[in-house]
Write a structure and sequence with these properties.
This protein is mainly alpha-helical. The chain folds into 2 domains: 87 residues, DNA polymerase, domain 1 (Orthogonal Bundle); 184 residues, hpI Integrase, Chain A (Orthogonal Bundle), CATH 1.10.443.10. Helix content is 52%, strand content 4%. The chain is built from 13 helices and 3 strands; from the N terminus they run H-H-H-H-H-H-H-E-E-E-H-H-H-H-H-H. It has a 3-stranded antiparallel sheet. The chain is globular. The N and C termini lie far apart (54 Å).
């Protein structure tokens, strides 16, 4: 059996026998997709039944080095474990390679937060003479300027850009939509990037409305965003563990420290509960009720 066959059957199993929601099924299959991307990146031609514990351990090390949070790593590992438990149940494998694999302990610790100067430093080293230069600069400005999740960034649509109004429409968890203000610097970089995007020789039919594309005209993957940021952070020499989520945390932290209303930050981040947003501040802080665009560094100057 191939990855495609096993993934398809696994999805049916989760949907029909486990009665999981479509969002849960999508999350599980996405976890398997990350593992497949890793195998492709390493140029390893192995089918599901040929996977050994060493492959999975190397994959875990890889996503850790990319900067994925312990919580995300734990979820991905859980998805892979469930997949191999299914293959064992179906007698498609003789031995489950995930049996001795442990998930990282998940705590409440936040990742490192970058200062405005550190963010400027990372963005400044992007080589704009390269074909992907303007795209990568726009990606970082949008991540930091809007506080998006990686999934929200890679699925951002041209039809959801209201640049003249200085807003973007974001499709978040559970397909819930929200309007997020976008600062002038992010708007400027998107406008610099779009001519390069539109000049691509071919744009995949399924990606025609997607903002950020690779050189083959297809939507970028989550892993690609992690790799772009990891390489830029290393090149900048900043001694912190930097990932796409670091920019989201920096966005929220800088707003809260500037005095932005916690409810406004909650709305911008797309948090279901205010309790999730409260990790960015002390509960007894006195919040000012100014808008996000008043406080965010990227909203002050074009």
């Amino acid at each position: 059996m191939t990855w495609i066959d096993d993934q398809k059957d696994f999805s049916h199993f989760l949907r029909l026998e486990k009665s999981l929601s479509e969002n849960s099924v999508e999350a599980y299959t996405s976890d398997i997709g990350k593992f497949i991307q890793y195998l492709e990146y390493r140029k390893l031609s192995v089918e599901p039944a040929e996977i050994k514990a060493l492959h999975i351990k190397d994959f875990i090390k890889w996503i850790n080095e990319l900067g994925m949070s312990e919580r995300t790593q734990a979820r991905v590992i859980s998805g892979i474990k469930a997949f191999y438990k299914f293959l064992a149940l179906e007698d498609r494998i003789q031995e489950d390679p995930t049996l001795l694999i442990e998930s990282p302990k998940v705590g409440r610790k936040l990742p490192d937060v970058l200062s405005v100067e550190e963010i400027d430093k990372i963005i400044s080293i992007i080589d704009l003479s390269k074909p992907e230069g303007h795209r990568n600069k726009a990606i970082l400005e949008v991540l930091y300027g809007c506080g998006l999740r990686v999934s929200e960034l890679i699925n951002l649509k041209l039809s959801c850009l209201y640049l003249e109004k200085e807003f973007i429409r974001v499709i978040g968890k559970g397909n819930k939509e929200r309007l997020v203000p976008i600062g002038k610097k992010a708007i400027t970089q998107i406008k610099h990037y779009l001519p390069d995007r539109n000049a691509l020789p071919v744009i995949d039919k399924a990606s025609r409305d997607i903002v950020f594309l690779n050189r083959r005209g297809k939507k970028l993957t989550r892993i690609m965003i992690f790799l772009i940021i990891k390489q830029l952070a290393e090149k900048s020499g900043i001694p912190k563990k930097v990932s796409p989520h670091t920019f989201r945390h920096s966005f929220a932290t800088h707003l809260v420290e500037g005095g932005a209303d916690l409810r406004a930050v909650q709305e911008m981040l797309g948090h279901e509960s205010i309790l999730t947003t409260e990790i960015y501040t002390h509960l007894d802080r006195e919040f000012l009720k100014e808008t996000i665009t008043t406080y965010h560094p990227r909203s002050r100057h074009p």
